[in-house]
Amino acid sequence: MPALPTPLALPTPPTPSSRLRRTDHDGLRAAGHRQETVERACPCGAVQRNNLRLRRNSASLVSALVIPWMSMLAFWIVFGHAASASGFDYALFLTAASMFQAVMFTAGGSSMALAVDMESGLLARLRAMPIRAMVAVGGRMITDLLRALLSVGAIVVIGLICARNPDSVGGLLLSCLTALLMGQVLVLAFCGLALRSHHPVQTAGLIQGVEMPLLMLSTAFIPIAALPDWLEPIISTCRSR
Hints:
The chain contains 9 helices and no strands. By secondary structure, the protein is mainly α. The chain is globular and about 60 Å long.
């Protein structure tokens, strides 16, 4: 008598608990993928938003592209002839000072923009979203770096037109990189002061208000030897502090 074939074993239907575990696992994986996508896209979105606000704000564009080289030209027109008579390349001296002025103004504008976002409640809404805490500050720093690049580039062009050629191209590039690095440090410092304050907009306005007097009470634009006798002790005291 021939042997009967062995019946095939039917698959065990999934229990409700295993089906629930699989659904939870797929949901968590999809949520993790969405969160990773949001975190990856948020810095780009923050930079795009900041750049759009910068293009729409005519005051920021003037402060970034016009004021630094205009102040440089003003100082050069007033004091350049007297400095050239003594063999001093005043335009090349002004280039470094104008670079620092540009990155300082950029940092001041950055603190004001971040303070406005804080008082409007935007930063509070960002904290409630699944994004990293440094998205707002990181996007702000990237935008400020782009703005500082434009300002420093304009100053370098004006400096090369008015001054003699620098000693080396490498030295000029190093000075530009140093100015940009100092600008990023100032952005972190000014934004930190504004965010730690109970009144961010007023604090950012105060920072912008003291920038120009601090520059004038330094030797950034005029060498200390060229200052009047009554002003030299004041500038020396400010530098020592």
